[in-house]
Amino acid sequence: MHKLRSGAVISRRELMTTRSQPIQIPVPTSVVHLQFRRYAGCPFCNLHLRSVAQRHHELVAAGIREVAMFQSPAGGAPRTTR
Fold it and tell me: What's the whole-model pTM score?
């Protein structure tokens, strides 16, 4: 596996949103700002995502599609067993 760098072009992929909707990246009609985040409950990630959400209209107007990926499993935070 290789590391992605800023501005990298990735091969076409289909991912599932948190609402079980498919999304394809890259999006042919717009620039994609692809964010890799920790787990969904990360306070730092949530703070940054809130600031992005507040300016969402500006991103849309600029033709930018936001996609944030979390390392959390689809069902929520990983469970530990004892």
Answer: 0.65
